[in-house]
Amino acid sequence: MVNHIYGAGSFTSRLYTEVREKRGLAYGVRTGLQWMDHANVMTGGTATRSDKAGETLTIIDDEMKRLAIEGPTADELEKAKAFLKGSYALSFDTSAKIAGQLVQIQLDKLGIDYPERRNAMIDAVTLADAKRVAKRLLDVKSLTVVVGRAQGLTKTN
Fold first, then answer.
1. What domain count does the chain have?
2. H or E element in which residue 31 lies
3. Residue 37 forms part of a structural domain
4. 16 near 28, Cβ under 8 Å?
5. Which CATH number does the domain housing residue 103 bear?
6. Are 80 and 4 in contact (CB under 8 A)?
7. pLDDT interval class at 156 (50, 70, 90)
8. pLDDT tens-digit series, residues 94-115
9. What pTM was computed for the model?
10. β-strand partners of 43
11. In terms of Cα–Cα distance, which of 66, 91, 85, 67 is closest to 3?
C-alpha cells in the first residue's frame, strides 16, 4: 500500500502528482516492488529531458524522504486500499492472467485461498502499520542510475 501511495498508483501516486501533474517534468513516473528469496527490491523509473534530470530526481528523493518521515495520510491509505481491492479482479480477466496469478500465489506460498483472504488482509492494515512500513521502506538513500546525458546532477541527487 505504501508503494502504491508513493509511486505505483499510476495517476494517484505522490510521484505522479509531483513530477507530472504539478511540474510537467515527465509523462510518467512509477515504482514497483520485487520480492525475492533473500532480498526485496524497490524499483522505479521515469524519463525526462536531460536538462530537467536533476530537478526530477530531487523531487523523487524529496517525496521519498517526506513519506518516510510523515507516513501516508489516512485518506491516502483508504484510497490505496479501495484501489487494491477493487482492481484485483482485473488480474483474473483472461486465461493467461489467471494462470499467472495462480503460479505467483504458489511461488509466494500464499495458499490457494489467498484470493478469498486478500481483501481482509488489506482491510487489516492500519495507518500506524503503513507509517511504520513507510519509514522502513523509504528511509534510505536510494541507488540512482541515469542513462543519457543528464544535466544538473550532483552527488546528492
1. 1
2. strand 29-35
3. yes
4. yes
5. 3.30.830.10
6. yes
7. low
8. 999 999 999 999 999 999 999 9
9. 0.87
10. 32
11. 67
